[in-house]
Amino acid sequence: MHNLIYIILTEVIMTPLIIWILEYSVSLSKNMSFLSHSISLIILVMMASMLDALLYYFITYKNLVDAVIAINIAMDTTTVALLYILVRYIRRKTAKYDRKLMINGSILLTWNEISMALFLFALSGNYLFNNINYIKYVSFFGSSITYILFLIPMVTEMLFFIIVKLKAFSRFAGILLLLMQVSDPAMFHGFIEFPLVISYSIIMFIVLYLIVVYIFKNRKNLSYNNKRLVLWIFTLIAISAAGIIEPFLISHPFGLSWLILAASMVISMLLYFEIVFGLFE
């Protein structure tokens, strides 16, 4: 595999960083200062924009113009984040751990995950675009999000919070989301696809069965937020099912199926971070 050292280095840096930022934010939920919130925001924006800049430079011709554009990709988003912090500091010098912060934090973490997925996929050698073909870009995005190189750090993060942080229904939902990721049919970029489709379909049925049984047994104890979380999980199952069925209905272009599965993965990541932040408690 190309650039193995850089692949390992990216995963080794990004995985603990995302775990630390999320754990740090949740642990300070009751006493979050403006400074801690600002530091977390800047780190997340800088890391995501840096990965985007490296990705752009890596897949281009690497001339002076490309270098300048890559630098601007990294600098512009960081500048916007700094301006946001400045304006917020002028208007309100506190950081309130509320629904808005949880959603925004989840979006930023998901952006980091997507940037890492795209960069890892490019490092593996899948980055050449010889002509303007939108299907290739769709396939590149879909394959990146569902590729094994990205699933390894993502599953590691999920396992950490399932074991250490989540409790009760949140842990149950986290386990269901984890099960939906560990046998993604696209994880090996088309290799052993048929066995993975079968296992993925079986796991989808298992997840559906488990959540229906859980709802039936605890129907009187489920809170409003729990019901919202259940609805999101059903939505993910529906999107995943569409990704499996799509190739049988639309055989070309095949990249569309990868995109649907990637959309399911992105929603799953966002939902998972919201669970850890405590949005559904």
TrEMBL record:
Membrane spanning stretches: 6-26, 38-59, 65-87, 108-129, 141-164, 171-192, 198-217, 229-250, 256-280
Keywords assigned by UniProt, alphabetized: Membrane, Transmembrane, Transmembrane helix
Tree of life domain: Archaea
Name of the featured protein: Ferredoxin
